[in-house]
Amino acid sequence: MGMHNLAMLMGGNALVLREKEINEYGPVYVRLVGRKPGLLDWLLTIIGINTTVIFEVYDNRVEYSYGSLSGRMTETIPLSKISNLMCGYFKPFFLLVLAAILFIAGICVSFSAGNGIPFIFGLIFAAVCVICYFLKKTTMVSVIPNSACPTTVIFKRSLIENNNISAEEAQQIISIINALVAKANS
Predict the structure, then answer these.
(1) C-alpha separations of 8 from 13, 40, 49, 112, 120 in Å
(2) 93-120 pLDDT, tens per residue?
(3) Separation of alpha carbons 182 and 150, rounded Å
(4) Which band of pLDDT confidence, cut at 50, 70 and 90, is reported for residue 147?
(5) How far apart are the C-alpha atoms of 173 and 24, rounded to whole Å?
């Protein structure tokens, strides 16, 4: 799968990060809690309807659970059965291109119209695109067990809860899991 296709896939499935705990000394080494984006899902979470996704790493297993209005499922992966780990981040580069086009178009139309109003609109729309570029960054952590489907969590910044996971933190999570896997297989 190409990087562009993976980025498009990730953007559509990104969860809003509600909680983040990374502890190199355990007993819960990693705890990431997310929800679907949007005001409705935020309200459901506030009133106690558990539609969250939880990714946790313990000294002997990785647990991935997800809830919906109709129930909850949990997947447990023993650390000794993990074959591959992956992490990364993606930013929607097309928004920067769109910002540049809008800015240049605003300048060109302003010169031809003889006033600055198109420039102001182009500048405003370009600024919105740049802000969206930074807010739409998604970070991914994936655990791939032996002969099974990957367990992948993809998060984007939460404006309401004000949580984010950086690429460095995703790499730290992979390092922690990798050390635990090596310990489990020794």
Answers:
(1) 9, 23, 29, 37, 31
(2) 899 999 999 999 988 888 887 787 888 8
(3) 19
(4) confident
(5) 9
